Amino acid sequence: MQKREILDFFTKNRSMSVGISILLIYLIAAIFAPLLSPHDPYEQNLDVRLSGPSREYPFGTDQFGRCVFSRILYGARISITIGIAAVLFGLIIGSGLGIIAGYRGGLTDLVLMRLMDVLMSIPALILALAVVAALGRSIPNMILAIGINALPLFARLSRSSVLSIRTMEYIEASEAIGTNSFNIIRYHVFKNCFSPLLIFSTLHTASAILMAAALSFLGLGVPPPTAEWGLMTAEARVYLRQAPYLVIFPSMVILVLVLGFNLIGDRLRDMLDPKLRF
Amino acid sequence: MDEKPLLEVKNLSVNFYIRHGVVNAVTDASFKIRKNEILGLVGESGCGKSVTALSILRLLLEPPAKIMGGRILYKGEDLLEKTEKEIREIRGKEISMIFQNPLSSLNPVLTIGFQVSEPIILHQNLKNDEEVKRRTVEILRQMGIPEAEKRLKEYPHAFSGGMRQRTMIAMALSCNPSLLIADEPTTSLDVTIQLQILKLMRNLRRDVGSSILLITHDFGVAAQLCDTIAVMYAGETVEYGSAVDVLKDPKHPYTKCLLRSIPRIDVDIERLEPIKGSVPNAMNLPDGCRFHPRCPYMIEDTCEKIKPEARQLTEGRLVRCHLYGR
Amino acid sequence: MDLIEMRDVKKHFPIYSGILPKVVGHIKAVDGISLSIEQNEVLGLIGESGCGKTTLGKVALRLLDPSEGSIFFEGIDIAKKKHDDLLSFKKKTQIIFQDAHSSLDPRSSIGLSVEEPLRTHKMFQDRAKRKERVVELLEEVGLESEHYDRYPHEFSGGQKQRICIARALALDPKFVVADEPVSSLDVSVRAQILNLLKDLQAKYHLSILYISHDISGVKYISNRVAIMYLGKIVELADQNEIFKNPCHPYTKVLLSSVPVPDPETREEVKLLKGEVPSPIDPPKACRFHPRCDCCTPECKEREPELRRIKKGHFVRCLSFKDLG
Amino acid sequence: MRMKKYILKRLLWIVPLIFLVQTLLFLLLTVIPGDIAVLIATPNAPPETIEALREELGLERPLIVQYIDYVTSVFRGDLGKSFIFRLPVSEILVGRLINSLELVTVGMMIAVVAGIPLGVIAAIKRDSLYDRFICTGVLFGISVPLFFIELMTILIFGLYLGWFPVSQRGGPIWTVEGLRHIILPALCLASICLAMIVRLTRSSMLDVLSEDYILTARSKGLKERVVIVTHALKNALIPVVTVIGLQYGFLFGNTVVTEVIFDWPGIGRLTYESIIMRDFPLIRGAVLCIALVFIVINLLVDLIYLRLDPRIEYD
Q1: Where are the domains positioned within chain D?
Q2: Which DSSP letter does residue C267 get?
Q3: What is the largest CA-CA distance in chain D?
Q4: Nearest to C63 by CA among C36, C31, C39, C30
């Protein structure tokens, strides 16, 4: 694409550019957290406990006198990692299973999809809680707990795309030529599954981040004193009346990041596949 | 011939404003239908014939559509100037419409009986449910639906294609309209069923005396049913005249070429003569005469620059072409 | 010589039902069809929707596996062969679909689509040579080399069908099934594609099974014509014979139902009574008897054979009396 | 006839489904955690205590025996005994489940009653100011963390304004106290699912409005209100109903957060507490119970779906 075209694209897609800008800001915050943060996120300074936003502490300090702004910057690393990793887990395994089920059909399809039904029959957050209860609190376990919920969704989506692609005549035309299944999947099915999967991945990253925040908020995500937004909110709950900003800042940060993913996902859907509905 | 027309469309023009630009769906459509007449509006897909039909009943969604100009006179009154309430009184009662795809035109979650009785309840002052039901069954039976009474409670998906189109026609005719607009009523049907539907429409004119505006892309269908034919190309009516005149002695190059390019069952043809190129994009229409890039009779320096006006050749015969200039 | 010969081919699709799915019936889409197509011949197959004509076309190319019967291609029965052994058969046969739009992968460039058969059959390993061949094919069907890198959505319906034809020709096939190739096109473009098919057929001596419900189109392009009703061939004859002298009652009604674009020949045509019966449970004996005006008691009892009434003219009807 | 068969088929699938869910829970909450006795005993407990605990819980038996015992006893209605409460799990669950159902159902009702009209309005007035406003609201609704809404609600309506109580259940819902207590948590819970319902109703309605049969309805001369309500809405609601079923599960998950924040004595909070206290039989029981409810709700939704869509193929 030419420079002009890129510029054109962004002026015409305002919500998309807002979303991308949000993501970029968060990425910068996550990558350069050590450079950008004014304080050590774990350094306690009991002299300045629960002090409101000031020049020294832009977002104030928490009950241990830690700099909320610095903690939020560091928190970006965790939330983004968990969100993206959980979706990648669901995307790779789930859509792999879905494509196999959709293309092979028959018994394979039946068994795989019934297993997905089992995962679907437990509400997402409850399943995540159960997984964390079994495995214990840690970042990889959270990724797994959230990723498992994404499995059946990706499997169903990719299966239904495969089924609709399979009925297309270009697949039949390809079979008429004598192309084998492997090449048909490689040349035709993958390419055409791509856009619904891309859209769904973006939108699902938003829910994954929300779920991670909820898990941490319940104290079943990452262990303290990790700087994680959900956990920070949970810890600030007790001081809701005294220091509402302790709740507002980390929550707003989650809200904006999730909003960013949703903006991009919505716009992608409108552009690539307006018939899709999630 | 000088009888006052039932419906007259004069220089109708409709645009669609969509994200990518402006679509000139109809730019200059003119024709008239007399009482008890069947007019065929013939043209290829995208020539604006359906949009014209929808504009008559003001069924276009505005936006994106916008009627840019022209008049649609029904019994001497301009339909375009009527209020929403007034036009609703005309819809279904005075003028009714049937559509191309009889499956998607029937509501899948409502019963046949409900859908057919709706216009009856709305437009006819019947005393009670019993009478409404009687009328519903009667009209369905007239349209050749066997065991109509039993089928009132069925849903459209249980009907075959031909039966669905009969139901649509029954719905359209339930209030004895003066004008029936039929938008490609047989396109999605098999030939044997097409024949049944065409016969139904012919009888309708004979028995009820309705006028019909038949929209089709098939010259065969038009020839078998219509008294008069208007040919449309790229949003304009290019030729208008009696069916015999237009089909036996076409004047406009588009009509001529189109007739030469269709295979026929009644004549042995060694080789078809296709029209070169393809139908122009309605967002980017050629200047001058819209047919000139595909026209074998193009006059240099004239056709690509000057837009031809519709000229009257003989009584009731109009052609929009520079070849028939003064 | 016959290039392809189908002998008593059947294709029944099972219908499942019940809690533990079991077969409760069959859709008898193709129910015992014998048909052969010679080299350099266009066989038109006419039938109304749901009569099984598309299924027959797909079975002939082994896109669907026949339930019964044999299909001889160049003398070899390919009906029971494993899919892996069909590669050389598939190389010599091709299909063109009705909807050119959905038969092109929207995310593959035109060049990539047309070259797919070459890649699959490992011809022209050299990239430049392969591209050369693709461009040659595009030009053959009336497109230009600059279209190579474009995507399907940039083309009109007629052009897309040309691309499909180019793809079908890539491997120099001997037998092509054309399933309603012009039905979804604009009227003014149909003639272009029909002529293109006709020219290419003559140039490459192709055998074509031309499937359509558009009877005039079939008349124009075919050498021989078969009429299909509910999974069976009811009449088969040379093109001029069948249109001049249709013998089966169904053929007669069908052919006279076609509206002629001549307002002066408006005849009152006989209407066909009733509806097409379900292919799950077709009428016993003659399948057409419930709708037939010439139905005799025998027609309800005995299943008619496809019998020869004169050279090259076959009819499946008991009440037809051969006068000639 | 075919409909009955379909319903029967759906009902019969529930049995293996529950069995598979049980298997999953057994793997997750018995096999993976390892030696539960060690996990629940106090950190420095002497080996004899752990051994006794193991004995008491039947953990020394081979896994397969435990598995069979677990699966069969569930089908007898026995969910085991809670470590902490020392009571049969099923006894603890019943009251809690009803409390949660009450909260979730009220939330869902609010979301449906408000969501469908909003979605319809947005669709009818597409691209208008209303539509923009509703769509922006939806975007925020699906992006906001539930605990944030709830904490803010507590802060504003509970702590600053003091209009409503912000913790505990106030008794049955038909009493004034009960209503006052449920209103805030139910509203919060509704808000996240409201966004989804509005969004889906809107898009589904837009699809339906572009269908040919709407044109047919208008061509009959029907009033626009009739076209929308009789002809469009019934079709547009079909996908919405499916999603309401799925959203029930979503709410049942999120009610954990709500119940923790509002101190609501429901099954969500119970699950949470049992996880914190490592009361494995109770966790298993609660999760299974929630799954069961969710399965039943989805079945009901499917049946409603059948009523709505006469085209349905029962396969």
Answers
A1: 2-75, 89-308
A2: -
A3: 85
A4: C30
How many whole angstroms separate alpha carbon B80 and alpha carbon B83? 8
Contacts of A128 in chain D (CB under 8 A): 253
Helices (H) and strands (E) in chain D, counts: 13, 0
**Cα–Cα distance list, A7 to A10, A12, A264, B71, B110 (Å):** 5, 9, 17, 44, 50
pLDDT tens-digit map of C149-202 = 898 888 888 899 999 999 999 988 999 999 988 888 888 888 999 999 999 999
Rounded distance between C-alpha atoms, residue D119 and residue D134, angstroms = 8
Q: What DSSP state is assigned to residue D263?
A: T
Contact C19 D9 (CB under 8 A): yes
D238-257 pLDDT, tens digit per residue, is: 889 888 888 888 898 899 99
Q: Which domains does chain A have, with CATH numbers?
A: 14-42+53-276 (1.10.3720.10)
C-alpha D173, offset from chain centre? 19
Give the global pTM: 0.85
Nearest CA in chain C to D6: C19
Query: pLDDT by residue (tens digit) across B105-117?
Result: 898 888 888 999 8
Q: Is some CB atom of chain C closer than 8 A to the CB atom of A169?
A: yes
Residue D240 identity (one-letter amino acid): V
Cβ within 8 Å of residue D93, ≥6 positions away: D79, D267, D270, D285, D286, D289
Six token digits for residue A175: 């079979």
| Cα separation, D253 vs D101, whole angstroms | 12
Window from A238-242, B321-325, C231-235, D104-108 with minimum mean pLDDT? B321-325
- Give kind and range of the element (H or E) at residue C237: strand C232-238
Partners of B178 on chain D (C-beta within 8 Å) are none
Q: What pLDDT is stored for residue A274 in this prediction?
A: 61
Count of CB atoms situated within 10 Å of the CB of C52 = 23
- Please state, in angstroms and rounded to a whole number, the distance separating the CA atoms of residues B101 and A192: 29
For the four alpha carbons of D152, D155, D156 and D162, in that order, the dihedral sign comes to: positive
- Cis peptide leading into residue D43 (ω within 30°): no
Q: CB of D262 within 8 A of CB of D70?
A: no
String of DSSP letters for A218-259: TT-SSPTTS--HHHHHHHHGGGTTT-THHHHHHHHHHHHHHH
Q: What percent of chain C clears pLDDT 90, i.e. is strictly above it?
A: 30
**ipTM surpassing 0.95, yes or no?**
no
- For residue D221, give the nearest of B108, B109, B123 by CB distance: B123
Q: Is D75 exposed, middle or buried (0-12, 13-18, 19+ CB in 10 A)?
A: exposed
Closest CA in chain C for residue B223: C263
- Evaluated on CA atoms A36, A41, A44, A49, the torsion sign reads positive
Predicted local confidence at residue C161, as pLDDT: 92
Q: In this complex, is the C-beta atom of D77 within 8 Å of any C-beta atom belonging to chain B? A: no
Residues D197/D240, Cβ–Cβ less than 8 Å: yes
Inter-chain CB proximity A122 and D28 less than 8 Å: no
Residue C58: count other Cβ atoms within 10 Å of its Cβ: 23
Strands B317-319, C2-17: pairing kind: unpaired
Length of chain A: 278
Instruction: Indicate the length of chain B as a whole number.
Output: 326
Residue A187 near chain C (CB below 8 Å) = yes
The domain covering D89-308 belongs, at the CATH homologous superfamily level, to MetI-like (1.10.3720.10)
Q: Which long-range contacts (CB under 8 A, 24 or more apart) does B256-262 make?
A: B257/B294, B257/B295, B257/B296, B257/C188, B258/B219, B258/B231, B258/C187, B258/C188, B259/B219, B259/C261, B261/C187, B261/C188, B261/C190, B261/C191, B262/B219, B262/C187, B262/C190, B262/C191, B262/C216, B262/C261
Considering only the beta carbons, identify the residue of C93, C103, C117 that sits closest to A170. Answer: C103
Q: What's the mean pLDDT in D73-88?
A: 82
Q: Please state, in angstroms and rounded to a whole number, the distance separating the CA atoms of residues A197 and C239.
A: 51
* Residues present in chain D in total: 315
